[in-house]
Amino acid sequence: MRRRPVLTVIVVLAAAAIAATTWAFLRPTYGDTVSSCQTALSAQFKASGKGKPEACQGVKEDDYSAILMNQIMGDEGWLDEDGRFDKNKMLEDTLNGEQ
Questions:
Q1: Cα(97)–Cα(62) distance, integer angstroms
Q2: How far is CA 15 from the centre of its chain?
């Protein structure tokens, strides 16, 4: 008769461990959240939207600022083929705007 309570506790603990492991594997990683933020921010810029997209709510403020600046520089045409800032493109654009 004492085996049933022990067996019940073991089954409940095993089920909780399986549920916790499944939850840990299925939740989005921070990288997934950042990627979703980049996609949402790009779509928002194309639609001339304003404000922080909902998909970016889980992104750290410093990372969001970097994503936002990258998006702005990309829209201005100041990034090279690898997505890195190209000072010459910015200066060329600035000088062409003054004439």
A1: 31
A2: 32
